Amino acid sequence: MAIDSDLLKKFSEAHGISGHEDEVRALVAQELSGYGEFSADGSGCLFCTSGDSGPRVMLAAHMDEIGFLVQNITAGGFLQLVGIGGWWPHTLLSQRVLVRTRSGRRIQGVIGSRPPHFLPEGQRNTVMAMDALFVDVGAESAEQVKNEFGIRLGDPVVPDAAFSHLENPFRVMGKAFDNRAGLSVMVEAFKTLCREGHPNTLIAAATVQEEVGTRGARTAGAAMKPDCVIVLEAPPADDTPGFSSGDSQGALGGGVQIRLFDPTAITNPRLAALAEEVAVKASIPFQLTVRRSGGTDAGALHLSGKGVPCIVLGIPTRYIHAHNGVLDLRDYRAATELTVALARGLNREAVESLTQYLPGKEHS
């Protein structure tokens, strides 16, 4: 399967924090046009459905990225921020950002703070709190920010980071791979399944507000009533200095992650076994993963309705929740291939077998 890094670049560079996913949603609609019937829920999740028979199999990926909202504009024209999603303040100082105004204009700025030269010695080596940071957009006053630049309170802010290929031809760098990488995989897999055929009612679900508590996944489950869900994600890699290489479960180039557990969802064991079996049969490289922390849309989706078997397939990504992530396109391709192969195998008999819990009908 060829790797379409142009699609990943397009999604990565889109502007779309939690609750402000409009630009990303429009790209998803554009990419999936002609592949199925569109619908949406009241939270802003977008669905594209192909087929009307067989089990309702959902491919889910969240559209939102972490970012900021403009919380205040000072008299001197600096922007104060409120964080949206899980930021690590270590990563923020001196980084460039883009503010999107209500007219769609993008205003560039840089994150600053009080210089260390003016801090007491005891504060110079401590991490600056979010409320001590600000954005300098080059303005001379609050009036200029509002009247000339068009920036208002509540405008969304994202990292200013271009997608790029690294010297290693398989490695790319960019912002918001969590979860634009998963979203790209979802789109590519859905298109492939629609072109080549599938045994189910297939639903591509682009969800909202995952980074602030899997909010869109809750409404998506209620709206679409899936029988089985494959969640596509870009979880943190664990192959950098500071980790034991022998214990790595998310190494770049090691293949797609099959998540068995995190604190928000225990993967249906039968579905996990099926994913592993499919991967082995198709010679798709994979890494089994058990996580002590974190969570995904599966945490909400597996509790929807009467309970739904869910599995998370991930593209390991270094430095998520920061300005520049790094991933391996071979893992991206493996995630796409496994999504296609697994969804293709989820016919009615396979899906029903995942939840046969009555005595005498258990999975053998």
From TrEMBL:
The keyword Nucleotide-binding does not apply. The keyword Metal-binding applies. Keywords: Aminopeptidase, Hydrolase, Metal-binding, Protease. It holds the Pfam family Peptidase_M42. Gene3D superfamilies: Peptidase M42, domain 2 (2.40.30.40), Zn peptidases (3.40.630.10). Belongs to the peptidase M42 family. This is Peptidase M28. It comes from Akkermansia biwaensis.
